[in-house]
Design a protein that fits this description.
The chain is α+β, with helices and mostly antiparallel strands. It has three domains: 114 residues, Acyl-CoA dehydrogenase/oxidase, N-terminal domain (Butyryl-Coa Dehydrogenase, subunit A, domain 1); 110 residues, Butyryl-CoA Dehydrogenase, subunit A, domain 2 (Beta Barrel), CATH 2.40.110; 141 residues, Butyryl-CoA Dehydrogenase, subunit A, domain 3, CATH 1.20.140.10. The strands form three sheets. It has a four-stranded mixed beta sheet with strand order 1-4-5-8. A hairpin with a 3-residue loop joins strand 2 and strand 3. The protein is globular. The relative contact order is 0.12.
Amino acid sequence: MDFAFTPEQVEFRRSVAAFCQREIAPIAGACDASGEFPIHLFKTLGRLGYLGVKFPPEWGGAGEGNVTYAILAEELGRASAGIALGFYVHVALALTAISVFGTPAQKERYLRPGIAGEKIGAWSFAEPGAGSDPGSIACRAEKTATGYRITGTKMFTTNGPFADFVVLTASTAPGQGVKGLSLFLVDRGLPGFTVGRRIETMGMRAAQTAELVFDGCEVPAAALLGEENRGVLTAMQTLTLGRITAAAYAVGTGRAALEATLAYVKQRQQFGQPIGKFQGVQWMLADMATALEAARLLTCQAAWLADAGLPHIKEASMAKLFATETATRLANDALQLHGGYGYVSESPIQRLYRDVKLFEIGEGTSQIHRNIIARQLGL
């Protein structure tokens, strides 16, 4: 059993970490305050090859797999959870679905330019009345002579305000619930497709999230991603891989909280000594470091299983559940140890505290993942 990263992966982490700390971390606070996403970074990450780390070389990727991609995700999450979320949706959801289920023509049209950062993708699953329950999806896609007519409203679509295309779920067999769902690739600017209101959020403010409205939007038959009426299987397989990535992002954000707190307790003086000298503070940091390492190991195990082609549904949910709850706990402890200085608006700790909560909600709540794990245990 080998717990070590390869020399190539170690060098990749060094390179990615240097880039993220130089180009992303310094603008994280400003992007959070303004609610603006640094869209230019898509082309930058594409040029550096980061967006295509886990995708096949024939489409412009590096073919490195999920473990290496988890390294990238951790470093992005460490630099800025809000900015990282935009890349997560683009790569781990939209491009992953196309890579696994797309036709050669779809890969040429969306995957190749997506890897290069020339096209930006969004993932539109949730609706006003449907979140973790895909059977409640009301958006419908009616067959036409040349394709489909999509009607409905989608919620919480990250990258929605600026994405060039969106991967969305819609019902192609009304009344069939999850057995009647299909996935579609819909281009921005099509008649009947409008970006609705911008959704303001507590955290992850740099990641722009919007409502999308489809009012008789006509798409060609070639817009169908995967098989008709089997979209829930397509979506769930994509989300399973996405959950590993979400866990890696959470590990990165938790690591940022731990690193900032370690630096603070070493220099903050109270009662004549650094507060890091007090046993109560030391115990908190020991627990934080231990939980973070456990979260990283769970995440790497799930990524390794996926790369090996082995079953990983349970492990992906375990990693997502534990890593996201760990990140939330670490952000809470970091804020507690920073005291009043962590609570002020200019502190990065309060941003981390607001950002991490979404990790426990998006891509399946913690409760949903406990259900998945229980089912995988045969319960």
